[in-house]
């Protein structure tokens, strides 16, 4: 399968550059997707952030070398990208539980993380319902934050941003500007990916009167979207993270589309204390794609 080849070729690149500065843009190029999308897909499939996988592999190889040759700790530290023996020692002890020099002791227990490879696994997973829809260009307004794509940062920074916007009254101001009630549901967009970070906007559709004071505009061009639903759920029970995980680990790797642009989390009040969320991913057929966001 073409997707498997691309992903394994990306892993081969990582493995052969563990003693060098790894070019994340090159990884994404090999995998035929953006840096941001590769990092997300890797994290969801492997359950380990890409940066953590690279760290574990480097420290695994460093431990092998400490055990089997007489190189100085500082030389091995520099070889695997650490600027000082102190930084290397801290990272080494955090992973292996012992200091680098102790790795040479007889009987010491160390950890080894083997290199990964991707294979097809047949599972009896639940079905995934989705629709492909064309959406005309539209505008939103709201507030935004830059989110670091590395590791678990999005899963920490995005909830923190929501908490801040709720506590400081921003969410209520968006509802008021949009003409929604006090419990009106607003939306969120992932966009403007810059490799190491992307922009996350909390907001709503632009009112006819134009941009409300104190908010930023967000113009969305015409796109084709793959749209997934959480189904109806009680408040606070959407399990949105699990749906994102299934999309990136099950649907994206095997579909005939490439994710090329913004993504949305659309939340709807379905009455009687129940809600529904839709995840929109801007996509293009693989045969039509020339680049990605």
Instruction: Specify the helix fraction band.
Output: 25-40%
Query: Briefly, what CATH class of the largest domain?
Result: Alpha Beta
Query: How many separate structural domains?
Result: 2
Specify the CATH homologous superfamily of the largest domain: Regulatory factor, effector binding domain
Q: Which stretches are poorly predicted, pLDDT < 50 over at least 5 residues?
A: 289-293
Biggest β-sheet: count, sense, barrel?
9 strands, antiparallel
Q: What is the global morphology?
A: elongated
SSE series: HHHHHHEEHHEEEEEHEE
The span between the termini is 24 Å
Return Rg in Å: 23 Å
**What is the SS-derived class?**
alpha+beta
CATH architecture of the largest domain: Alpha-Beta Barrel
Mean pLDDT: 88
Based on DSSP secondary structure assignment, what is the total number of beta strands? 9
Percent of residues in beta strands? 15-25%
Quickly count the helices: 9
Reported by name, the CATH topology of the largest domain is Multidrug-efflux Transporter 1 Regulator Bmrr, Chain A
